[in-house]
Amino acid sequence: MEEEQVIRMDLCSSGKEKPQSDQLAFGRTFTDHMFLMDYTDEKGWHDPRVVPYEPLTVDPSAMVFHYGQSVFEGMKAYLTAEGDVQLFRPQRNFKRMNHSNDRLCIPPIDEAFALKAVKQLVALEKDWIPEAEGTSLYIRPFIISTEPFLGVAPSSHYQFIIILSPVGAYYKEGINPIKIAVENDYVRTVAGGTGEAKTGGNYAASLKAQEMAEEGIAQVLWLDGVERKYIEEVGSMNVFFKINGKVVTPALNGSILEGVTRNSVIQLLKHWNVPIEERKISMDEVYQAHKEGTLEEAFGAGTAAVISPIGELVSHHEHLEINSGQTGATAKRLYDTLTGIQYGKIQDPFDWVEKVEDIRQGTLRASG
Amino acid sequence: MEEEQVIRMDLCSSGKEKPQSDQLAFGRTFTDHMFLMDYTDEKGWHDPRVVPYEPLTVDPSAMVFHYGQSVFEGMKAYLTAEGDVQLFRPQRNFKRMNHSNDRLCIPPIDEAFALKAVKQLVALEKDWIPEAEGTSLYIRPFIISTEPFLGVAPSSHYQFIIILSPVGAYYKEGINPIKIAVENDYVRTVAGGTGEAKTGGNYAASLKAQEMAEEGIAQVLWLDGVERKYIEEVGSMNVFFKINGKVVTPALNGSILEGVTRNSVIQLLKHWNVPIEERKISMDEVYQAHKEGTLEEAFGAGTAAVISPIGELVSHHEHLEINSGQTGATAKRLYDTLTGIQYGKIQDPFDWVEKVEDIRQGTLRASG
Ligand SMILES: Cc1ncc(COP(=O)(O)O)c(C=O)c1O
Ligand SMILES: Cc1ncc(COP(=O)(O)O)c(C=O)c1O
């Protein structure tokens, strides 16, 4: 994109009814508008536009349906008590999107422009941001390959789309410990695969393990695909263990997703002088710590659920209870601090928050 | 599906122009009609119909765009010199589709009904089957998850679609040896993953290796994701090596696709009393055989290319020339026999061929 791109605005005349804050499900309701942008090899990314939320028209032979060339991101817009709209480290999402793009052979997007597009769309849909505690506007940017061609090769046409969904808390019960199962049969991905990328295939691969898991299992804990010993991550969260006063999380090894929440947790722990190690951690180490009584806490960290304490870890009919099934102090402090910063309730010493200005219906210029 | 399902026919009045036989690309042109069928948790698979080929209308939040829950198949319809239309072992494709469905948590289809749907659609589009040597009508059945929901869980809505594309030979040069690169960095999948299933994510994961491969590389040869030593398969083909008079192919280990062509090759070789082994085979064994002069042939086998002799194998700047870069006798015999059976030129001792009756515009009944 060499010229300045202007986002064309094609707004709908009347909006849909908004759901009640206490009736929000996750990812089921979408706002009145969406952002779209097209890519062709000849024109690059072009024709950015905000249009009414409506079905896409996609050829049955579009490559995304057959060869899964797609990436996505997930972030949230938060409403503060003062009525301001805030994003949390959105730059990292678009950086990660480009990282995913690279792995999936999708042409890179202009990260700064994508952020402006999000801001413009969120500003337009401000009235859709729910107000109740723990609720937010979930933002889903994604790219799909749309060339009508049945051949295994990178597509020459793509669409970059952003949709918005007002969401309640991810786990209806709030910050309550969940039950996680260690997955011993299925593998999500392996080094050299697509685990570091946020692409559909990783999630498609994960469904079966969840289906096979016993009742009451919130998500599964993935082990590495090679030795089936080392902990990778949970369904849609990175994972942390507090053992003997130290927090440990699996190092970025090429097969786990680098979570924005993970990075924020690590920074907060360092800021608080809580020892934090990024390294390989095996299930054996966790079992051993549990046996010795040094497994103090376990929790997942991700945008959707923020911090999710793990109260019970199930593996091969063994049930490990962690911290008597209660939320630990570290998980609680992280949850309160992260949500505090996100909702503008506490100070943001890290400059993580990005304000969305009230520019309703204005147009946006960005150099591409 | 408890009742008999009738395929509703909604035909277009005038057809598109058909491409010249000598100008056929692979997977770029589609016929006038397609088959569709819907699934909901309440109704099961329902409303089978043949409609004009046209874009699908899909919600931007449809799960297939985000979480990659999709499967597909690939088979061909062949026109014989007598004007008959033949399919090659299509039952295996729908059986494999259900195997893929199971791995991807997609509800199973009625295999017999799907085959009838293919036959009805192909019969209707008979005029689209090209006549020239090596050409055929490529059949692409696929299932996509269409529930509008941003959550990692199996979809509750799906569409099963069949589209048809008249195709020329997969490799324009015909049965000419290709150059294959051994992939040492990227991994397609691993045991416990989705390698046995025909699902988009496997192909999305494969694009990068192809992009990184040097000029002139037709496809890459995947090694196992654990030890990175054992041969798995080629991009869209299973692979065979003839070493010292014996043919060897990697055993089905849970991470490679069970090809219909692979199975047919094995049966043919047994029928001919050519020794054939399905077992682990390492790249070291292939290098060693090459060094000792016992690596007689290598070839890929798949629906699109039928048999593709491998004339050169590239790895870490080593170039192995196989059979002086010529098509070997075994590859040639397999190619001639398989295409001979498919095009009705030679006898079919295995009952592999399935005729498509000329039932244009008739309706079809099947119990679901
Ligand atoms: C597989 C996986 N791991 C980890 C995460 C957490 O990442 P983030 O904190 O950026 O939401 C997510 C969710 O985005 C995920 O899908
Ligand atoms: C990964 C992969 N392996 C092998 C094959 C060969 O299978 P078949 O002979 O059924 O076409 C294909 C093509 O379908 C494939 O995509």
Automatic annotation (TrEMBL), chains A, B:
It comes from Lentibacillus salinarum. The keyword Amino-acid biosynthesis applies. Its cofactor is pyridoxal 5'-phosphate. It is an enzyme of class 2 (transferase). This is Branched-chain-amino-acid aminotransferase. The lineage of its organism: Bacteria, Bacillati, Bacillota, Bacilli, Bacillales. SUPFAM superfamilies: D-aminoacid aminotransferase-like PLP-dependent enzymes. The keyword GTP-binding does not apply. Its EC number is 2.6.1.42. Belongs to the class-IV pyridoxal-phosphate-dependent aminotransferase family. Keywords: Amino-acid biosynthesis, Aminotransferase, Branched-chain amino acid biosynthesis, Pyridoxal phosphate, Transferase. Coiled coil: none annotated. GO terms for molecular function: branched-chain-amino-acid transaminase activity. Pathway: Amino-acid biosynthesis; L-leucine biosynthesis; L-leucine from 3-methyl-2-oxobutanoate: step 4/4; Amino-acid biosynthesis; L-isoleucine biosynthesis; L-isoleucine from 2-oxobutanoate: step 4/4; Amino-acid biosynthesis; L-valine biosynthesis; L-valine from pyruvate: step 4/4. Gene3D superfamilies: 3.30.470.10, D-amino Acid Aminotransferase, subunit A, domain 2. It catalyses: L-valine + 2-oxoglutarate = 3-methyl-2-oxobutanoate + L-glutamate; L-isoleucine + 2-oxoglutarate = (S)-3-methyl-2-oxopentanoate + L-glutamate; L-leucine + 2-oxoglutarate = 4-methyl-2-oxopentanoate + L-glutamate.
